Input
Amino acid sequence: MSCDDSGGPELPQPAPARPGRRVDMTSGSLLPKVAMLSWPIIGAYLLQVAVGIADTKMVGSLGPVELAAVGTANSVMFFFVSISFAVSMGVQILVAQYTGRGDTQGTEQVLKQGIMAAVAITLLIVSPWGVLLSSWIMKLMGADVEMVRHGAPYLQLMFGGMLFLILSFVITGALQGAGDTVTPLVILLVANVVNILCNYVFIFGVGPFPALGVQGAAVGTLVSRVLSAGAGLWVLASGRFALVLHWRRSWQVRWDTVGRILALGFPASLQGVTRNFGFMVMIKVLALTTAGTYAIAAYTVSMQIRMVTTMVGLALMAAATTAVGQNVGARNIERAGKSAWILVALAVGISTISGIIYATFGGYFTALFNEQTQVVAIGAQALLWLALSEPFLTAGMVLSGALRGAGDTISPLIISIISITVVGPLVAYLLAITLGMGTLGVWLGSNAGIWLRIVLLVWQFQRGRWKKLRVA
Output
C-alpha cells in the first residue's frame, strides 16, 4: 500500500535511502552479519552505561540520600517509560519483517504511524500522569522525606521532557529493524557527550549557571534528549540512510497499522513494566531491611555497575529482534533460529567475563561511587552474589528478543511475570524479611527469578511455535 494517497501532484522528496549502512541478515555468512549488526548496538548501549556511571558518580558525590533518591526516581521513571516502549518495539518488529521481504512502502507506513502513536501516548498518558504522581509513588516505594525532597522534582523534570526520549526510541528501533545500527550509535555518541557536560554544569554550577544538585542531572539529560530526537528526525528526512520519511506525503492515521504496532509492542511494553515493577518491589524490600537507605544506595550503585552487562544483553536482544525479524519476513525460518543461538552464545560469553569481574572487584567499584563504609560493604555483597546470574540474564534477554522478532511477544511477557515479577520478589521477601537474611536474601531472590526465566524461555523457543506466526 502506498504511503502517498493524497491524490495531489508529486512533491519534491528526499532521495531514496542509501543501503550502505544496512545489514541484510537474510543472506551471507551468519556470524559476520551478526557481528556487523551487533557491535554498534552494543557500543550504543555501553555509551548509555558511561553516561549512567558519570551521572551516578556526580550525584553520588552529593551524598547517599541524593544517590538513593535518584535511584528510586529512575526506577519509577523506567516503569512509565516501559509503557511507551510498546510503540518502538512494535515498529522495530514490523520494520524488520517488511525489510526482510523488501517492502519499503510498508516500512515507511509503519514508521509514520509509530511516530504519531508515540506522540499521542506520551503527551496524553505518560508525561501528565508521571508529573502528577511523582511524589506519591516515591513515598509508596518507601522513600523518606529527604529522598522525596530531592527525587520528586528530578522525576517531574524527566517526565516533562519524556516525548524526546520516546521519539528517539521509535527512530532508533526503526533504524535497527532496517539493519542500520551505526547511525543510532553516532547520534547517541554526540548526545551522550553533551549529556555528561551539561550534567556537570547544572549539578555543580559552572560560570553563570547555578548549582542545581539533583535537579541539574535532569536538566542536563533533557538537553541531550532534545538533541538526540532532533538528530533522528533529520536523519529520516534526509534520505541518506537506511530509512527515509517523506514528510509532505499523507500522515493519515491508519488504525490497522497502529493496531498491529500496539498488538506486537504492548506485550513487550508490559513486560518492561512488570520487570521494572519487580525492581521497584526489590527496592521496597530493601527499605524494610535494617540497612534501609544504605541498602537502597548500594543497590543503586550495583545496578549501575551491572548496567554494563545489562546493556550488552539489551543490545543483543535488539539485534536478535532484527535478525530473526528480517529472516522471518523473508521466510528463512531455519536461518532465523541459527542467528538467535549465535547471539545467545555471544551474550553468555561476554556476561560470564563481566560477572567474574564484578565478583572480584565489587567493593572497589562501589567505592568509586560512594565511599560510605556501609554502602561499600553492601554493594560488594550485591555484586558478588548477583554475578552468578549474569550469563542467564543476558541469554534470557536474547531469547526474548528472538521471540519478539518472530512476532511472539506474549510468551516473553508471561514468563517475565512468573519469574521476575512474582517468584523473584516473593523469594527475596521470604529470605530477607521472613527468614531474616537481610540484603543477602534480596540478592538470592533476584537470582532465583532470573534462573527460572531462562529455563522457561529456552523451553518456549525450542517448542518452535514462533515459526508459524505471520504478523507483517
